[in-house]
Amino acid sequence: MSVLARFLRGSQVVVLSSVLLITSCGGDSAERNYAVPSDLCGLDVPRDLYDPAFPPGSQLAVEDSFDLSGPLTLLGDTCTIEVDGSQVVHSATYAWDSFDKVSVGEGEGEAVSGAFNAMVWPGVAMAQAPCTIAVSESHHMTESFMISLEMTHPAGDEESVEVLSQLIQPYMAAAIDGVPCEERAG
Questions:
Q1: Would you tell me how many other CB atoms lie within 10 Å of the CB of residue 23?
Q2: Of 163, 179, 158, 145, whose CA–CA distance to 88 is shortest?
Q3: SS3 category, 13
């Protein structure tokens, strides 16, 4: 091999090494430097469905999660997950029978087919199902169980709707399994 050929080959290695070094030392913020939770808000749903909700960052904090040691309540259970101090997931349960009782934002939502009544908007999905709960042996109170799921990622409207549309039905199925409904949809 000629001296020129060895020089050129050596130069390519140096240039390639420099590019890799600059890229890796440049603080590439497009990496996730934390572990994605093994469940979403304490609910067992396939990880590949909620993985897109977790953006690049360094630190994950689960501020609130659904307490699955007992049945979920129909009012006010919440879950909040943050990445680097910014909320990326928020979920809440309600005893409402209509999506119009919750302010969801602008525009009409899209219906999501499945076992539960579900709607999706960019960044938000909701599902609702009838749920009869025994107050005592002789008295039953008919309620509706509803869950909302807000995600800031993926940020694009179309991708957000796609991800939430795939997630809301299994998410609701996992949630309603924790509610003491005597009769339920799904």
A1: 9
A2: 163
A3: helix
